[in-house]
Write a structure and sequence with these properties.
Layout lengths: L3 E5 L1 H4 L6 E7 L9 E8 L2 E4 L5 E8 L7 E8 L3 E3 L9 E8 L9 E7 L6 E5 L5 E7 L1 E10 L10 E6 L3 E7 L3
Parallel strand pairs: 1-7, 8-14
Antiparallel strand pairs: 1-4, 2-3, 2-5, 3-4, 5-6, 8-11, 9-10, 9-12, 12-13
Length: 179
């Protein structure tokens, strides 16, 4: 198996609390369940992973937040070290949640979680911290299930919403909490 694959990730290097990326390996296109999942720790601006059999692979790389997953098709992995070109992640589609409250009321904290319904699955989530607007970015094209709720409503489940995202536009959802 290849000793090490190195992928420079300059866009992610400045995100000090991001310690690695998820990598799905495919022999063909990045559709459905991958042959294998790997975790690639980031050190010195480079994501590194190993144990990949030499040959041509499609790599689906999930930065886990802020950016959409990246697909690198037909990457040649060799025995020894494989140096890839620097990754160029896109922001992708985003979901803007507008919290609507009665005039004079302060919006509560809300939580949004969006999960892709088809493989390779991933999610993005965020909390509003009591603002009337919340944006979650980092989505590619696909069908996503959205869970939207007040933070302190333990056990409460919002009505899940299923949405289609195009991989580059912003979708606006209203959470109407007015009486």
């Amino acid at each position: 198996a290849g000793d090490e694959v190195r992928l420079p990730v300059p866009q992610l290097a400045a995100m000090r609390d991001l310690t690695g990326v998820r990598v799905a390996l495919y022999r063909g296109s990045a559709v459905g369940q991958p042959e294998r999942w790997l975790y690639a720790p980031i050190a010195d601006g480079v994501a590194r992973f190993g144990g990949v059999e030499p040959g041509r692979w499609t790599l689906w790389i999930d930065p886990t937040r802020d950016f959409a997953p990246l697909v690198l098709e037909q990457v040649e992995i060799t025995a020894g070290a494989t140096e890839l070109a620097p990754a160029r992640f896109e922001i992708g589609a985003s979901i803007r949640v507008r919290v609507l409250v009665a005039e004079g009321q302060t919006p509560p904290r809300v939580y949004v979680n969006a999960r892709r319904r088809t493989a390779p699955e991933y999610f993005r989530s965020a909390s509003s911290r009591g603002t009337a607007d919340l944006v979650v970015a980092g989505f590619d094209r696909g069908t996503f299930e959205i869970d939207l709720r007040r933070v302190m409503d333990f056990g409460a489940r919002g009505e899940p919403r299923v949405v289609e995202l195009d991989g580059h536009s912003e979708l606006v959802l209203d959470l109407d909490l007015r009486p």
